[in-house]
Amino acid sequence: MNAAALKETARILYMAEAEKREIVRITRDYPELTVEDAYKIQEELVKLKLKRGNGIIGPKMGLTSRAKMQQMNVEEPIYGYIFKDMIVPDGGKINIHQLIHPKVEAEIAFVLGEDIEGPGVTGEQVLAVTEYLIPVLEVIDSRYENFSFTLPDVIADNASSSRVVFGEKVKKPEHLQLDAVTVSLAINGEIREQGTGAAVVGHPANSAAMLANMLARKKQKLKAGSVILTGGVTGAVMLTAGDSVSAQVEGIGDASFTVCS
Ligand code: 0L1
Ligand code: MG
Questions:
Q1: pTM above the 0.90 mark?
Q2: CATH superfamily entry for domain 3-260
Q3: H-state helical runs in the chain
Q4: How far is ligand 1, taken at its centre, from the CA of residue 37, in Å?
Q5: How many angstroms is it from 82 CA to the middle of ligand 1?
Q6: In the structure, what pLDDT confidence band is assigned to residue 67 with cuts at 50, 70 and 90?
Q7: Which Enzyme Commission number(s) are listed (predicted)?
């Protein structure tokens, strides 16, 4: 894909998100789209959002569960970015009409006390510099019709990022084994999905380490203070108006929101 087409594709994705409109996946017209070009489209999309006054809260990892990786036939998760305008206050409301076909998943976010730079970063190194943990509800809302996409499509679409609800930030408990921590996702008081931290590439810190190593390919690093979403511990559940959604992360805390119309 040439530079003009990369920019134009980013603009189409940007407009689809802004107008809450489904589009056909990019790879229908560009079947040869590579992962590398898909990240270039994502970069253009990020630039567009920044140019329009939005700000980055931090990076996110996506497709971090074995099931999702197998489904997409990939060896490595993907990343995208969470922006300021995606934040919904804890206990707040999300209007279903402002989104296309949202799903929600429960995650754990890390906040580092020091920058960390790949390649070669390990989960242990990430844990050593992790200052805070945050329970997170991430709303994903692919801009593609029927959530129908290939790997390059979803990368270009900023890993389906849409909304995020952060629970209270807590100082990382000294002896908490994050891989063994249970994370539950409840809708209207009923647990719909549950998993342990190990569902995220073995340990959520491994996910952050993989992200540091992926960012190193473009000479970037994980920055102290930014909020890093490590990926869904639970499966993603479709949202409908009237839903009351909560996530509980054992030993860390919870987060919630309601869906209105
Ligand atoms: O945060 C995520 O894991 C979403 C990655 C994109 C896949 C999807 O939209 O289902
Ligand atoms: Mg996610």
A1: yes
A2: Fumarylacetoacetase-like, C-terminal domain (3.90.850.10)
A3: 3-18, 26-29, 35-51, 66-72, 123-129, 151-156, 204-216
A4: 19
A5: 13
A6: confident
A7: 4.1.1.77
